[in-house]
């Protein structure tokens, strides 16, 4: 078996169908089907169940997929060790990040990192914390920028705090919020809970939510149109210069803030590319990058 076969098997193991795998690996479906049949012939057994809903591994197939995952990891480790002998920082690094971090922080950060280490190949996956945490646990990514403080047994580094703002097209009084239309957006449960607790301690009435949108950028556009207020983090407002905003505080007068941490997978410190990235983070002013 070749490396491309191991990768193919892991993609099927992720629950993807032949069409999705062929698109990701840039090979035709007939060629992919040929590779799958050849792998089965090599093991002398049927490894997959084929049906109208696609292809799924059977018991033997699941075992072979786990083997492929181990082989990919072993090959990556071997490459890292060989490169380390020549003092070169080269290879892939898989980074997880929230949409906001990927949009506002990573472009500048990775641009600077690649100027220093041009032979590193970064791969970025975005999503909410539960998804990224699962990727870390299963070592599908090396590091993740998560905007909350989680219990974690491996590498963990505090990066910065962001202020949470009340945002509207025009100035509003806090006590009038229950009567005003609010624009909500999908976000991590930790931020939603923080806002919900703040609201319950500030008002007797529930918020007057008129719109629910997918992300903070869409929410911001609706606020710009004067259709309601929103509660947004500082990072999402980094390029906003015209809307009225007010830092939010709790009932003790303390600012509401959201933390961002860098987490590493169980074996992240074994990879020289990942270690170089973590060292680079230590050298950067992350506080300014999040402004």
UniProtKB/TrEMBL annotation:
* Domain HTH lysR-type: start-end pairs: 1-58
Name the PROSITE patterns on file. HTH_LYSR (PS50931)
SUPFAM superfamilies (UniProt xref)? Periplasmic binding protein-like II, Winged helix' DNA-binding domain
Keyword Transcription regulation included in the entry's annotation: yes
Citing just one GO molecular function, the answer is: DNA-binding transcription factor activity
UniProt cross-references to Pfam families, sorted A to Z: HTH_1, LysR_substrate
**What CDD domains does the record tag this protein with?**
PBP2_LTTR_substrate (cd05466)
**The entry's keywords:** DNA-binding, Transcription, Transcription regulation
Give the InterPro entries listed for this entry. LysR_HTH_N, LysR_subst-bd, WH-like_DNA-bd_sf, WH_DNA-bd_sf
Family classification:
Belongs to the LysR transcriptional regulatory family.
User: Any idea what this protein is called?
Assistant: Putative HTH-type transcriptional regulator YraN
Q: Which organism is it from?
A: Sporosarcina luteola
């Amino acid at each position: 078996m070749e490396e491309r076969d191991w990768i193919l098997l892991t993609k099927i193991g992720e629950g993807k169908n032949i069409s999705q795998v062929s698109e990701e690996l840039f090979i035709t479906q007939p060629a992919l089907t040929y590779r799958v049949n050849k792998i089965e012939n090599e093991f002398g057994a049927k490894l997959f169940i084929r049906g109208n809903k696609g292809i799924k591994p059977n018991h033997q197939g699941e075992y072979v997929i786990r083997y492929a995952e181990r082989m990919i990891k072993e090959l990556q480790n071997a490459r890292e060790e060989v490169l380390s002998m020549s003092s070169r920082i080269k290879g892939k690094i898989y980074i997880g990040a929230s949409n906001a971090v990927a949009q506002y922080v990573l472009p500048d950060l990775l641009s600077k990192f690649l100027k220093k280490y041009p032979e590193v190949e970064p791969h970025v996956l975005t999503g909410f914390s539960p998804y990224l945490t699962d990727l870390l646990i299963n070592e599908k990514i090396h590091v993740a920028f998560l905007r909350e403080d989680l219990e974690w047994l491996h590498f963990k580094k505090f990066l910065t705090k962001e202020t949470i703002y009340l945002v509207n097209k025009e100035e509003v009084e806090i006590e009038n919020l229950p009567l005003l239309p609010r624009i909500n957006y999908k976000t991590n449960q930790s931020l939603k809970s923080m806002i919900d607790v703040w609201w319950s301690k500030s008002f007797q009435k529930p918020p007057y939510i008129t719109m629910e949108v997918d992300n903070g950028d869409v929410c911001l556009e609706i606020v710009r149109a004067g259709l309601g207020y929103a509660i947004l983090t500082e990072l999402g407002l980094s390029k906003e210069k015209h809307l009225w905003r007010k830092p939010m505080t709790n009932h003790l007068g303390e600012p509401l803030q959201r933390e961002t941490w860098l987490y590493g997978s169980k074996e992240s410190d074994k990879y020289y590319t990942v270690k170089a990235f973590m060292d680079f983070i230590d050298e950067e002013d992350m506080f300014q990058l999040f402004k």
